[in-house]
Amino acid sequence: MAARIFKGAEFLITEAGKDDVFVPEDFSDEQRQIGATTEQFVTNEVIPVRDDIEHQDFEKVVHLLRRCGELGLLMIDVPEEYGGLELDKATSMLAAEKISGSGSFSVVYAAHSGIGTLPLVYYGTEEQKARYLEKLTTGEWVAAYCLTEPESGSDALGARASATLSADGSHYVLNGTKQFTTNGAIANLYTVFAKIDKEHFTAFLVERSMEGVSVGPEEKKMGIKGSSTTQVILDNVKVPVENLLGEIGKGHKIAFNVLNVGRFKLGAAVTGSAKGALADGAKYAVLRKQFGRPIASFGAIREKLADMAAGIFASESLVYRLAGLIDDRLATIPKETPNYYDVYQRGIEEYAMECAIAKVFCSEVLAFVADEVVQIHGGYGFIQEYPAERYYRDERINRIFEGTNEINRLLIPGTLLTRAMKGELPLEREAMKALDALTTPSFEELDEAVPFAREKALLSGLKQLFLVLAGSAARKYQARIKEEQELLLALADVVIGIFALESVVLRAEKILPALSEARRKTVSAAVFTFTFSANEQAASAARKAAFYVEEGDALAVLLGAVRRFTKYDATGLLDAKRLLADAVIESERYPF
């Protein structure tokens, strides 16, 4: 457990230390074994039939899901009393990361073990769990989650699917169409959201065998072709009242809380995919020759390899820091707590903003990596015989899954504003302090004896800058700020950059003493490379926010704050990138 338990969003106003973060190097032997088992399963059983999966041989998909059940990979988040392992979130995320190498099958796995199963785990009655959970944890049954509709995507609460209680009170009659349901054609149990009397948004457990349930044809998708994606059509489906999940009118709690889990697990999965893509890109760069030499020897290619490795290091650092935050908080909740899973869900919801950050940041790192790997392959990256093409197609959905990246970006400042208004986060007080500090010159000198002193000084500045911008925006727009989406998106990018950069710096500081000299240099090069990139992106977003908020003299003050708080001495950046590129080329994979 960390030295202290941080609240959600607290990183913006509090300085964390290296002992406050969980990092991949902290994995126990048991966790590493589960990761290795998952990786071996993908290598030995999934990859040999991956082409069959891509051509929608769903018999093989279902068989492999049952193999996951035999290996315990469907039990990680399930309580022990229902045949599960009930392991921590770090382990769950590690399994998600390792299974990502299976391509489309990882989507099937994630939908089943995550959003398909967790609503039942968190909100199901004892009878519902006894009836369904064992079937799901063994893979005997496949689970799916039905939220999106043809007319309601990001606006989930605008769903039109209806549920009407029968005259005798024995069942609900469900009608409607659900869109883009992952595992739609292979699922036996659907978590379906519908409005009782067209008003009360509620969840139901619907069996595939119930009369009136049907699925549409497979969607012809750009990528993840080996996963089933269909409509689920409900035509006067009689669902027993005992299959109502949770409380009437409280379906939004189930939908959104489970999506928080889905978001941070997606962060882990795309991190694994990025590692695989980088490895294929590095191997190709070493083998491919142009002008009589391997293209891995050219600076244009080497810089790509370095930037990808640094981005993945950040993605990995961020996602496991979040796992540690959640695990530390959940560990404080005794199992005998009344309404345990209500309290448990509030523990996860505490980090809803960080879950959104993980989803956005990690999916965009993969997008960058996949694009660069295609570029390294040149024309061959456009050909299906090479893996680069599949990474590129499969990647794109991750910026739409689990809420679009735009929706997740808006959630970040939205969460901050809500917490500030409730008095849970002293954002207004800290913003006023930051605004007052603008008129005070800083004469602090860096103590180069402190590990990553430059990066820590930059982090402190970026936090101050965010508070200045947020304070200025809140003062100008007040309650209307919720409608200023362009501004909120820019502020979100600053917050994302801060959390990612702090995760990188704290991880590096924590692990450096135990590393060899050569390894320390490689880690430091990754920190340096990522810091420069993250700062450039944060500065750009901050400048944009400044122009959105002010004009004239007030704008000049904000732009001066951007210049002051984003100063970073990047002397030696090229040497750092070359050193990092050497590590990637030598190992022909992600080097950490």
Short description:
By secondary structure, the protein is of the alpha+beta class. The protein has helices at 29-46, 50-54, 58-71, 89-99, 104-116, 118-123, 126-138, 251-287, 299-330, 340-349, 352-377, 387-395, 405-421, 427-437, 453-477, 485-511, 517-549, 552-565, 573-587, and strands spanning 143-146, 162-165, 171-182, 189-196, 200-207, 213-215, 229-240, 244-245, 289-290, 293-294.
Characterise the protein shown here.
By secondary structure, the chain is an alpha+beta fold. The protein has 4 domains: 10-142, Acyl-CoA dehydrogenase/oxidase, N-terminal domain (Butyryl-Coa Dehydrogenase, subunit A, domain 1), CATH 1.10.540; 145-245, Beta Barrel (Butyryl-CoA Dehydrogenase, subunit A, domain 2); 251-320 and 336-405, Butyryl-CoA Dehydrogenase, subunit A, domain 3 (Up-down Bundle); 421-587, Butyryl-CoA Dehydrogenase, subunit A, domain 3 (Up-down Bundle), CATH 1.20.140. Helix content is 57%, strand content 10%. It has 19 helices and 10 strands. The strands form 2 sheets. Strands 1, 2, 3, 4, 5, 6, 7 and 8 form an 8-stranded mixed sheet that branches. A two-stranded antiparallel sheet has the order 9-10. Strand 4 and strand 5 form a beta hairpin. The model has no long low-confidence stretch (mean pLDDT 95). Residues 462-564 form the Acyl-CoA dehydrogenase-like C-terminal domain. Residues 28-140 form the Acyl-CoA dehydrogenase/oxidase N-terminal domain. It catalyses: a 2,3-saturated acyl-CoA + A = a 2,3-dehydroacyl-CoA + AH2.
